[in-house]
Amino acid sequence: MFSQTVEYALRAMVQLAADSSGSATTKDIAAKAKVPSAYLAKVLQSMRRGGLIHSRRGVGGGVTLAKPAAKISLLDVIDAVEPLKRQANKKVATANQLQKSMDTAVDQLRSKFASESLADMIPKGKSVKAAPAKRPVAKKR
Q1: Which of 4, 71, 128, 134 has its Cα between 20 and 30 A from that of 10?
Q2: Would 132 be classed as within a structural domain?
Q3: pLDDT for 29-76, tens place per residue?
């Protein structure tokens, strides 16, 4: 039902939330989440554009959650890469039972994933990393 991209995004974000070491490199996340590194780099770009992670290049750089893991829902991650919605179809004069059933199913999925956070996916007893304070970016002179 979900694309490989969505699964990779979810696995990587759960791994990032579970990693208590602070910033992690794309290579480290890929190895731990068992996701191809090059593919993960593209997935993480979507996470950054969606405001879910911060990334910093160079020495001391890496990837960190932009918010605490408890504040990032699974739906946030899914919607950052491939929004969970029905395809827009031509409107029919009266909605038939199939359309209503499909709409209900999508609504239930969205509700379920919205109610579960990255922190909820961490095994009990394992610490969850809090999002670090956003570092100011040094201005070039």
Answers
A1: 134
A2: no
A3: 999 999 999 999 999 999 999 999 998 887 777 899 999 999 999 999
H or E stretch at 53: strand 53-56
How does pLDDT run across 9-38, given as a tens digit for each residue?
999 999 999 986 678 999 999 999 999 999
Supply the CATH number for residue 80's domain. Answer: 1.10.10.10
If one counts the domains in the chain, the total is: 1
Q: Is this model's pTM higher than 0.90 or not?
A: no
Tokens of 49: 């554009």
**What is the C-alpha to C-alpha distance for residues 46 and 130, in angstroms, rounded to an integer?**
21
129 is a domain residue: no
**Is 82 domain-assigned?**
yes
Half-sphere exposure of 37 (CA within 13 A, CB side): 7
